[in-house]
């Protein structure tokens, strides 16, 4: 990285970058790590983790150039944070379950926020940054609220709320001037779906990725079936596509 950022002999592209320009690549590399894990490809995972580590090195080096922090500071900061937030591992505190650990984690985060805010009262939700993808942030907001016991007791308890939100969406759709309410109710429905996923202890984003992959797989089968007839999707009727879609589903079941 020192060589790449060298003012005289470095790479022109690397020299021009700053924190903002590199941030999208950092997010992209994190998604590629997750994709390799989903596919179970250990070679790709190794390579993608290297790419993600490179992003950390890149940011740390730019921090060093500004005199703000360096790689050692980054490593020490996370080490210190993990020790603070795991007193049951690095100290004498005892925690008997995952739920207790989650509550303790939020308490430690709150203490850290109050220290940064010089003791001023802050919201428990301040720990959830704005820049998260919407599905991830919804889950984190819900977990933060749940740490204060503002939550349903189990997954089955979420289902009536899910039905309620669906009914409200259907009601909004029935109104000729209800577009804004439709959008709002659809958001509420999605938020409740994330809540259900959280109670089922599955990752909402991961579940949606699986659904995307299933749709893509079936759509491609349908597409190939039509192409095998010497036709294109534009030539097929909706009824024909529906029949081939059902056939693709049946192939997966078999």
Structure description:
The protein is mostly helical and 254 residues long. It has helices spanning 12-16, 19-39, 42-65, 71-85, 87-90, 98-116, 134-146, 155-173, 179-199, 204-228, 238-253. Among the domains are: 1-85, Helix Hairpins (Orthogonal Bundle), CATH 1.10.287; 206-253. It is built from eleven helices and no strands. Helix 2 (19-39) runs antiparallel to helix 3 (42-65), helix 8 runs antiparallel to helix 9 (179-199) and helix 10 crosses helix 11. The chain starts with 11 loop residues before the first helix and ends with a helix.
Short structural description:
The chain is mainly alpha-helical.
The beta-strand count equals 0
Whole-number average pLDDT? 91
Silhouette: extended
CATH architecture of one domain: Orthogonal Bundle
Measured between the Cα atoms of the first and last residue, the distance is 52 Å
Strand content: under 5%
Poorly predicted runs of 5 or more residues = none
Give the H and E element order. Answer: HHHHHHHHHHH
Specify the CATH homologous superfamily of one domain: MazG-like
As a whole number of angstroms, the C-alpha radius of gyration is: 24 Å
Percentage of helical residues?
Answer: over 70%
Which structural class should the secondary elements be placed in? Answer: mainly alpha
| CATH hierarchy, class of one domain | Mainly Alpha
Number of helices: 11
Q: Let me know the largest β-sheet.
A: none
CATH topology of one domain: Helix Hairpins
């Amino acid at each position: 990285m020192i060589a790449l950022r060298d003012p005289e002999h470095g790479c022109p592209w690397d020299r021009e970058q700053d924190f903002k320009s590199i941030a999208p690549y950092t997010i992209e590399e994190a998604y590629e790590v997750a994709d390799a894990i989903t596919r179970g490809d250990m070679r790709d995972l190794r390579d993608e983790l290297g790419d993600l580590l490179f992003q950390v090195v890149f940011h740390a080096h730019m921090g060093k150039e500004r005199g703000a922090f360096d790689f050692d500071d980054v490593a020490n900061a996370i080490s210190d944070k993990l020790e603070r937030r795991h007193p049951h591992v690095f100290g004498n505190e005892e925690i008997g379950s995952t739920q207790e650990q989650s509550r303790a984690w939020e308490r430690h985060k709150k203490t850290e926020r109050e220290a940064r805010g010089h003791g001023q009262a802050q919201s428990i939700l301040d720990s959830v940054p704005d820049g998260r993808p919407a599905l991830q942030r919804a889950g984190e907001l819900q977990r933060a609220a749940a740490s204060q016991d503002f939550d349903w007791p189990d997954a089955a308890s979420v289902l009536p709320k899910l039905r309620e939100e669906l009914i409200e969406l259907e009601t909004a759709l029935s109104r000729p001037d209800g577009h804004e309410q439709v959008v709002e109710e659809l958001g509420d429905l999605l938020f409740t779906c994330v809540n259900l996923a959280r109670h089922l202890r599955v990752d909402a984003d991961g579940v949606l990725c699986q659904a995307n992959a299933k749709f893509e797989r079936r759509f491609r089968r349908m597409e190939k079936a039509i192409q095998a007839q010497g036709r294109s999707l534009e030539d097929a009727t909706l009824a024909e596509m529906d029949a081939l879609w059902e056939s693709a589903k049946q192939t997966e079941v078999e």
